[in-house]
Specification:
With 140 residues, this protein is mainly α. Helices cover 58% and strands 0% of the residues. Helix 2 (46-59) packs across helix 6 and helix 5 packs across helix 6 (123-135). The termini are far apart. The relative contact order is 0.13.
Length: 140
């Protein structure tokens, strides 16, 4: 019985390591491919920023605040606190893809599990939201 449990545990651990190594190898090779194959980014327009602002207000402002400082009405209850999107030093460390990934998949991918995922945001809506979030730190 113990031998079976140990065997199952070892098999599971081996599978986890194999999956982890496989996904790292795939992400490393696809990163260079996806950059080359990525379409040119559309220019940010006022209409795009307006759409992004509306999406931000509906999905993000409760925690991040209307102005993106991390001071929304729910922010006080969150540990760690929501990210300040107006911080240009931090925001410059993120690519648009980083921002989009966190929006769609949630903060757990960055070690911030309280940020919910928004898988319903895709295409133009996601691009608009990323552009708006990016604009919050542009004037600082």
């Amino acid at each position: 019985m113990i031998k079976t449990k140990v065997s199952c545990l070892l098999a599971f651990a081996g599978l986890a390591v194999a999956i982890g190594c496989s996904s790292q190898a795939q992400s490393g090779s696809s990163a260079s491919t996806s950059v080359a194959a990525a379409p040119a980014k559309a220019a940010v327009t006022p209409a795009m920023l307006d759409q992004g602002r509306a999406i931000y207000k509906a999905n993000c402002a409760a925690c991040h605040g209307d102005g993106g400082k991390g001071d929304g009405p729910a922010a006080g209850a969150l540990k760690p606190p929501p990210r300040d999107h107006t911080d240009p030093v931090y925001m410059k460390t993120l690519t648009d893809k980083n921002l989009a990934d966190v929006i769609v998949m949630g903060g757990a991918i960055k070690g911030k599990p309280l940020m919910p995922s928004h898988p319903q945001l895709r295409g133009g809506e996601l691009d608009s939201l990323v552009a708006f979030v990016r604009s919050l730190s542009a004037g600082h």
